């Protein structure tokens, strides 16, 4: 977000701390005054982001703020630079989807509650300590509210303190950011013994109080499967919340397919098929085995992480339960990512198991085609991956959808079988989509059955 050199005046709104997905920020060379917000992403931005504003104060620019009465209520940016408008424009520009998405973003934001100011999420180092689960009971110990639990049977870390965690992330340095999503930023942490962890710093408006939050985290920690990212522990103190996960050496599927130079060429068909099978197994465990059953609500390639052997692990499952009130297996808040959201969400914003199946179908199309779900740089008729694939398939040109890196290498029949499965998953009618367990069985049979034995979409 670059607002430098725009003759802005007034004070930086505290509500901008809610833009937790920002990796960079600049209001340099304006006429801004007052304290620079602290906490959240503002602890990661460089001092150059605020230079050229003599009236700004705070530790980042090494100018002490006067303790004038009423300072917290000093003027904010002019109304013409309404915070919601700025956020909406940034979302529209970053998504590359033009005016329509910008307007949609503004409308969604107008429905969401943004609290100006609010409590800082700065960590109080002299009061916060984190301990392992052994010997600590969160309901009876004196410092129960300050405890980090590691309820898994096989833990990567023991007796981790907040000081060690801060050191491992270099005080949540921006350079250690390895991912971002709808629930916060993810940082790489390297402990003194060399152990690597992924630490998600949660952001957002929590629908659950501290005790309920702990209960939900402990419930999620029981979801143990070889194709799920393992939750190692958490830390909670007032408004400050961290989740600690196992570290995935090879990052996300999105990174390998769409961002890493020569990444797609390193994902041959057998590797891509293994990823699809592994991710479907993890999703099936969430839907049918673990208790309570979990609707992911944001299945996408960036939430499928890869270990050093390119085994797939589904990430960010159940996080909506920590942020928003969750009462049944059907939830009523829109959570999802453009290109993966099932069409039925347009009529009723309800997340279901079959909605997850649709999103997973889109992931399979990404694996087959090497293309993003939405790409505004492409011609209008092929910008949306789902409609493009469906059109070519209806015209009998299904061979044209496959990634050129995969074609003609002896796996075309297997790719056609997976395409059949993916097209079943992206059926416009949710009741005609298969269950995820059916998807698992079909993917398991790819290469061992005749394509004509698959159900006809």
Can you walk through the features of this model?
The protein has helices at residues 83-95, 98-111, 162-168, 210-221, 253-259, 263-266, 269-289, 319-323, 353-369, 385-394, 412-425, 436-445, and strands at residues 9-10, 31-35, 55-57, 177-181, 184-190, 196-202, 231-237, 240-246, 304-306, 312-314. It is an alpha+beta fold and 457 residues long. The protein folds into three domains: 9-111, no CATH class; 144-246, Phosphorylase Kinase, domain 1, CATH 3.30.200.20; 253-453, Orthogonal Bundle (Transferase(Phosphotransferase), domain 1), CATH 1.10.510. The longest helix has 21 residues, at 269-289. Residues 68-147 and 324-334 have low confidence and may be disordered. It catalyses: L-seryl-[protein] + ATP = O-phospho-L-seryl-[protein] + ADP + H(+); L-threonyl-[protein] + ATP = O-phospho-L-threonyl-[protein] + ADP + H(+). Its EC number is 2.7.11.1. It is found in: Membrane.
CATH architecture of the largest domain: Orthogonal Bundle
Structural class: alpha+beta
Count of runs of 4 or more consecutive helical residues: 12
What is the CATH third-level topology name of the largest domain?
Transferase(Phosphotransferase), domain 1
N to C succession of SSEs? EEEHHHEEEHEEHHHEEHHHHH
The percentage helix is 25-40%
CATH homologous group name of the largest domain:
Transferase(Phosphotransferase) domain 1
Mean pLDDT: 75
Q: In angstroms, what separates the terminal alpha carbons?
A: 44 Å
* Proportion of beta-strand residues: 5-15%
Low-confidence parts:
68-147, 324-334
Q: Just give the CATH class of the largest domain.
A: Mainly Alpha
The 3D shape can be described as globular
Radius of gyration: 23 Å
Number of domains: 3
Number of strands: 10
Largest sheet properties: 5 strands, antiparallel
């Amino acid at each position: 977000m670059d607002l430098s050199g725009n003759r802005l005046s007034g004070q930086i709104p505290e509500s901008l701390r809610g833009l937790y997905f920002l990796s960079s920020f600049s209001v340099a060379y304006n006429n801004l005054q007052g304290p620079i917000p602290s906490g959240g992403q503002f602890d990661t931005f460089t001092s150059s982001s605020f230079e050229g504003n003599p009236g700004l104060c705070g530790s980042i620019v090494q100018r002490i703020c006067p303790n004038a009465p009423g300072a917290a209520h000093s003027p904010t940016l002019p109304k013409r630079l309404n915070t919601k408008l700025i956020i909406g424009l940034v979302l529209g520009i970053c998504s590359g989807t033009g005016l329509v998405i910008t307007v949609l973003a503004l409308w969604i934001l107008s429905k969401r509650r943004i609290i100006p100011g609010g409590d800082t999420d700065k960590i109080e180092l002299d009061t916060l300590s984190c301990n392992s689960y052994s010997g600590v009971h969160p309901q009876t110990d004196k410092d129960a509210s300050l405890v980090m639990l590691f309820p898994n049977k096989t833990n990567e870390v023991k007796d981790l303190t907040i000081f060690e965690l801060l050191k491992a992330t270099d005080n949540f340095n921006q350079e250690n950011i390895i991912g971002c999503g709808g629930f916060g930023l993810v940082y790489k942490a390297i402990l003194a013994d060399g152990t690597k962890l992924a630490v998600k710093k949660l952001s957002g408006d929590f629908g659950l109080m501290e005790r309920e939050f702990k209960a939900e985290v402990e419930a999620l920690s029981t979801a143990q499967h070889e194709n799920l990212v393992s939750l190692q522990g958490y830390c909670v103190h007032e408004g400050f919340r961290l989740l600690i996960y196992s570290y995935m050496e090879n990052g996300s599927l999105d990174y390998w397919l769409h961002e890493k130079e020569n990444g797609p060429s390193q994902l041959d068909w057998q590797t891509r098929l293994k990823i699809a099978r592994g991710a479907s197994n993890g999703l099936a465990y969430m839907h049918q085995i673990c208790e309570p059953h979990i609707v992911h609500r944001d299945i996408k390639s960036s939430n499928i992480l890869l270990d050093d052997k390119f085994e797939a692990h589904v990430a960010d499952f159940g996080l909506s339960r920590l942020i928003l009130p969750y009462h049944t297996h059907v939830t009523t808040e829109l959570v999802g990512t453009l290109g993966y959201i099932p069409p039925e969400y347009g009529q009723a914003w309800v997340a279901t198991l079959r909605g997850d199946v649709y999103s997973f179908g889109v992931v399979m199309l990404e694996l087959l085609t090497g293309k993003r779900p939405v790409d505004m740089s492409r011609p209008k008729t092929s910008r949306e991956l789902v409609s493009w694939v469906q059109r070519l398939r209806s015209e009998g040109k299904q061979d044209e959808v496959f990634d050129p890196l995969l074609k003609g290498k002896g796996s075309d029949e297997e790719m056609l079988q997976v395409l059949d499965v993916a097209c079943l998953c992206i059926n416009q009618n949710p009741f005609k989509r298969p269950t995820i367990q059916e998807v698992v069985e079909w993917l398991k049979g790819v290469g061992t059955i005749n394509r004509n034995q698959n159900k006809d979409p």
